[in-house]
Amino acid sequence: NAIPFIPSINNYHLFYILIMLVSSIFAANQFASIKGTGAYIIEAYPCFLFPIFFLKTRKQIETAIYIFIIAGVINAVMGWVQLVGFYSFGKIIIPPFGDNYFTTTKAYGYADQGSPGAFAIPGFMRMYGFMSERGNTFGTYMLVPFGLSLYFLNKYKKAYNRLLCIFFGLTILVSVSRNAILSMFFLVFSIFLFRMIQSDKITEFIFKI
């Protein structure tokens, strides 16, 4: 079944880009602002256009979601390899082809470049997977496959979807990313609350009181 295209979504996106361009005129550092806006248009906006023009059916959309989940599994497995390697052998395991961006020990609690964060005490490992160590993006990125796996669990209720949710949830917890952990609990709580509202259990509970 074809998914209907909603033109207003594209209009909102174009309006957002227009605001970025106008704000660049009044920015303190105009060159940096215009550069960032241009990078967004070149790198991010095509990612918005691709699903509009190429993902037309629910099957195509779910195939794309599976690709995101597979990428998340690969990234999470790399993170667990780093975790086990650090605690078992005391070795910093650099991801394949990661020599050019994984050069410090920040991920492992030794902040030789900047602060490791509140949870990253010396020797307390923080997973990075295939993500760059210069930004704490691993846990936040893992929210994407975690949320998508929740979608499949809610729709198909298969055992492997349940395992995926547990796997991604544990990975986010062990990543000690504060934003990701709080966001994960908020997401799960929101879904639980929404299902309770749908089932009218909250209404029954209130009227009983």
Question: Can you give keywords for this protein?
Answer:
single chain; 0% strand
Distance between the termini: 45 Å
Query: What is the average of the pLDDT values?
Result: 75
Task: State the major sheet.
Answer: none
Q: Number of DSSP helices?
A: 7
Which range best describes the helical content: under 10%, 10-25%, 25-40%, 40-55%, 55-70% or over 70%? 55-70%
Structural class, judged by helices and strands?
mainly alpha
Shape: globular
Order of helices and strands: HHHHHHH
Low-confidence stretches: 109-123
Q: Assess the beta-strand content as a share of residues.
A: under 5%
Instruction: Give a count of the beta strands, DSSP E runs of length 2 or more.
Output: 0
Rg, Å, rounded = 21 Å
